[in-house]
Amino acid sequence: MNDVPAFALLVVLLVLLIREAWNLRRRSQVNRALHEARRPLQVLALASPGFGRSQPGQPLWQAIRALSEVDRRVNGGGPEPVPPQPIACRSLVEACVERWRPQARRSGGEIRLRWVGPDAIVAGDGDRLAAAVENLLANAVEHGGAVVSVRALVLGKRLRLEITDGGRGRDSARRLDRAGALARMRGTNRHGHGLGVVRRTIREHGGRFDLCLDRRGSTASIVLPCDSTAPTRSEPTEDRG
After folding, report:
1. This prediction's pTM
2. What distance in Å separates the CA atoms of residue 87 and residue 165, rounded to the nearest whole number?
């Protein structure tokens, strides 16, 4: 009878050793992939004119920082400290829209931007904010209808940014029905990774993020505290893509 607990302990130790060996092998494979991903990013960064921290939200910086985050998750280490910087949100949003317009056109749609009020100066991380806006644009272009509307209103010390898509008719309704069923099974706060990035980033900047889904499409809204008293452009921007 005494042999039974000893045998069980041996089995547990063997399972733990196998799992640790599997984790080490997986970590080695991830580190190899990280090494291979760094080289082309370094080449692109060195070849990019004017590449640097002076322009927050550049896709290359987003990719490099995301890769560094994967490295820390796999190999340990604390998050990279990024001191808050003043971010001119109007220029940042305009740059994000311009980057996603070609993809919208390839999908047979367009992105329309309207900015009302002065610029919104937000203290924070420009790369993270740009990634949040682009996650919403990517979702709208992929799942929305022909027109994606980006509307910004700066009033007092608040910036409200809305990204609205028109859905895709019956396909959108079926997709929302499936999403609702999955949400009921998984819990109301389960979203995709992109929306998780948006929610976390806006919360870290002291703002609020809301997502409204219905059969006509979706509206994602961001509200951020800002300083709109800087001497920046104040004329409305409205374009048709």
Report:
1. 0.68
2. 26
Give the distance, in angstroms, between the CA of residue 204 and the centroid of all CA atoms in the same chain: 13
In whole angstroms, what is the distance from residue 4 CA to residue 38 CA?
Answer: 51
The Cα 19–Cα 202 span in angstroms is: 37
DSSP E strands in the chain: the ranges are 85-88, 110-116, 121-124, 147-155, 158-165, 208-214, 217-225, 237-238
Give the C-alpha separation, 88 to 120, whole Å.
6
Query: What percent of the chain lies above the pLDDT cut of 70?
Result: 74
Evaluate whether 120 touches 154 at the Cβ level (below 8 Å): yes
Q: Which of 132, 138, 101 is nearest to 222 (CA)?
A: 132
Q: What span, in angstroms and rounded, lies between the C-alpha atoms of 51 and 82?
A: 18
Q: Which domains does the chain have, with CATH numbers?
A: 3-75 (no CATH), 85-238 (3.30.565.10)
pLDDT tens digits for 71-127?
A: 777 777 766 667 888 999 999 999 999 999 999 998 888 999 999 999 999 999 888
**CB-based contact 83:126 (threshold 8 Å):** no
Average pLDDT (177-200) is 59
For 151, counting Cβ atoms within 10 Å of its Cβ (0-12 exposed, 13-18 middle, 19+ buried), the class is middle
Q: Which residues contact 176 (CB under 8 A, 6 or more apart)?
A: 213, 214, 215
